[in-house]
Fold Reverse transcriptase domain-containing protein.
Amino acid sequence: MLSNGALGRVLKDCAEELKDVFTDIFNISLEQAIVPSCFKATTIIPVPNKPSPSCFNDYRPIALTPIIMKCFERLVMSHIKSTLPPTLDPFQFAYRPKRSTEDAICSALHPALTHLDKKDAYVRMLFIDFSSAFNTIIPQQLTCKLDKLGVNTPICNWLLDFLSQRPQTVRAGNNTSNTIILNTGAPQGCVLSPLLFTLLTHDCTTTHSTNHLVKFADDTTLVGLITKGDETNYREEVDLLTKWCRDNNLLLNVGKTKEIVVNFQRGHTQHLPLIIDGTAVERVSSTKFLGVHISEDLSWTAHTTSLAKKGQQRLYFLRKLKRSGASPAIMTTFYRGTIESILSSCITVWGGSCTHSNRKALQPIVNTARRIIGTPLLSLQDLYITRLTRKTLTIIKDAHHLFSLLPSGRRYRSLRSRTTRLRNSFTHQAIRMLNTLSPLHLPTTHIPP
């Protein structure tokens, strides 16, 4: 039997000869709502989540599926997306065009920062962890939701068969387990799995306007805006979310779920712990959210310190390239791919509000790289301005409705802020930047005649 790599080369070289054959197979599969077992066969490769795994939960199960099935899944995925409303689940930022982790983080921080600008206000942020989220999908429950979303019955039936009776083996090194048959879950590694999970969770929404739910695949964050110490809505929202998880067979891992309380009030009292399923959620001073360290004081010291450490480590390899006689062009490419990409990761989130000392920890890395390569490189501030401009113009073109024009149509409406913390956040910085651009740089569709 050919490996996936060899089969891929055969399919590519013989595409013209095989296209009609596979077209017939795909059409028959869709008509009969049956997926051949050989197309569903999955090999699971356990990939460690941490450097020294100590238990099964420290591994991520990555599924290797047939290349033919991946091609088929892409066709089905394209069809499903074409039938869904574009406004479905606006707070799900994963697997969506022109959406990124930056959008998700900004969407979580903006309401929090805006609320903290008021008196007698604080914020509780719950960072939820699910246990093997993709593996707990119940096919019948998913297809019922898809039917309500308007996905046609033949596709729903096909998906039901696709997710049922899946032969699966586990391979670790040279050892392969016996085959078992699974009837739940969508394997990580399948093309359709991310889309199916987001459709399963599209109805996981907030009940109270004082709470905001931000989702990036299975990374879910609940932001509770608390006024005058009244946490009733927030705690009720957590209870409803817990019930939703239970009803949808999602296992909420309370042990890995973290909470941050952001409270800048003077002399504030001790906050009562949050209880989920009889277990107190751990309250932390800082946690990692979509690759960015969020702290209870909303400073970026922990995050920039982490970036500086990674950047310094990668400078070693840049020096090795220099000693081996690599050209400036090659070293610049390496720098942009391995160092600049780290330093500028989600920079629109934290770049405007980081302190001088935060920048001081990062800029020397750029300066050192410049000396090693011997060519000019963008400074950290230039990187921030470039990314801020690009992200802001993308948002305008994508009609996020974060910014509104004044009646004149020439400037965007500025937002009020009492604190520097809010004033330096992404949304406020973006509006100020937009108002400095000439009309030629702005999409004409957003400027009224």
Q: What stands out?
A: Residues 285 and 296 are 5 Å apart (CA to CA). Residues 4-91+139-194 form one domain.
